[in-house]
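Fold this sequence, please.
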Amino acid sequence: MADTAVAERGRLDTLPKLLRRNRERWGSRVAFRDKEFGIWTQYTWGDVYEQVKEFSLGLVSLGLNPGEKVAVIGDNEPQWYWAAYAAYAARGVVVGLFTDAIPSEIEYILDHSEATFVVARDQEQVDKLLAVAPKLSRIRKIIWWYPRGMRGYRHPLLMSFQEVAEMGRAYQATHPDLFERLIAESAGQDIANIYYTSGTTGTPKGVMCSHEALIGSTEATLSLVSLEADDHILCYLPPAWVGESFLGLIPHLLTGAILHTLEEPETVMQDIREVTPALILGGARQWEGWVSIIQARIADAGWIERTLYRLLLPVGARVAALRLEGKAPELLWKGLHPIANALVLRPIRAYLGLTRAKLPATAGTVLGPDTFRFIHSLGIPLHQVYGSTEGGMVTGHRAEDIRWGTVGPPLPRVQVQISPEGEILVKSPYLFSEYWKDAEATRRAFTADGWWRSGDAGRFDGNGHLIYLDRLSELGELQSGDRYSPQHIESGLRFCPYVRDAMVVGGKTREFVSAVIIIDFSNVGKWAERHRIPYTTYTDLSQRPEVARLIEGEVERLNADLPPPVRIQRFVCLSKEFDPDEGDVTRTRKLKRAALTGRYGGLIEAIYRGEEACAVDATVTYQDGRQGVVTTAIRIHSVPKAGAC
């Protein structure tokens, strides 16, 4: 069994103490694998410890003091994690930034967090940082680790990762015991990270999380599965997201499991196939995307393969449904399942790289029941977990008790109750400490008797499993009084391989539900080519009448599973994708509904006025920096069968 150091709580209450323990226990064993140019490079626990020691002492020699903030921006690469470990060891606080953050977002977070050092991957990130640096007087150094494009840069703020490490080696010569002393002095109550919320409803808040809260919450999550030191973890989600800490970085430190970092975001599928991880976290969008890939591959297969899929996928679906209900498969299905597994299911799992998955998990936005069932039909034991930056990990499925439609029962030492208003309230040792520089928001986040207000709507089923419904503020109600969950309907739309994203629209002043749909350009493009439908651009394809009929069929499929009053009656295929740089979605792809409703207010009004088209302006930024406005006539479509009971 994995030793998660519960019995050693007093001694191993910080992340750098876990790193030191692992160096002592597994010094020559592989800790990290990093892929570059198609080749995996290995680092032992001893290697990692030395890298972290040198960089940490380099930061200290540059003036990093306990409690000061070190921001890190870059892709999932060893240097990201080593920089974080180094900051922790020096009793600093890590502030993660998303790689696609624009300069104004970077400026806000660095200024608000009072960061003194920034560690960045490459020229792209350095350029953004130098653009805002004149407004950030606290920044002492910007440290880069990837040299491409940096040769000609000369700036007093800039240093390379290697230069800082060399300073650390020199500093160690005159301070030989300092690093170990700093680790020994670290305390569980020390703040480890400030995670900035996604800002779906306003300005991002800095959520302060202590070492002991992060470690304890991760230990509670690992109670769902037995993770061993020779298991593999792939970190591919943004390391600035708290979910990657809970189900990536910290399980690696707690159990000694080997951490893999991917080559490029574009190679994630290939990297997963090579790693075959035991633990992998995917947001709902990732799992929906993988299902779309499988569905598209099935559609593109030859007729013999398609016939096998058509005959044998239902076998997997039937067996999975029975198991999720706690029932044993009947003799017929039990006999057919090994055949289906050999010919169809296992090859699909191998294509996804999930043949050895112990804890494939989803968190974040709602995962629709169709997607959940489909993944289980492939023999992938997908667990739904529920948590947040402020609340830590709250609930999760156990392997022997997975129920679709729920996010599992509360984790050890976590209490959950539902308020009279239907809000999920949480009490546990793993809650955040406070919002950075926002005492009033911290006060509002808790009830008078100490329960954290999640802002989420939910209820319990008869088996003690929590059912997450939606954000309390986003639960919809039509003019008729009929209530609906936008996230539930949107996840149903995204199950379609031809839909990349969607926003459901309704409200108390509306008579029906409508949808703004973003087509999946790749899958719809392939479909159009198979059907010899010409198109030139994304905009052109999105407005083709044949595509409208394709999407209409998918909407009708979803409507069949919805109560008649809340079925989608009208929809549009937008001429451009939702863009985080334009404030449509967050960096983790959560919809910013208020922003979208404002931007497309004219289009939404046209939908409800019964119009057949609406002109929509879109700002376009050209390569030379110039901006222009492109006007597109967006067609509005009605769903004929939407009102049928």
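Residues 413 and 428 are 6 Å apart (CA to CA). The domain at 475-638 is CATH 3.30.300.30 (GMP Synthetase; Chain A, domain 3).
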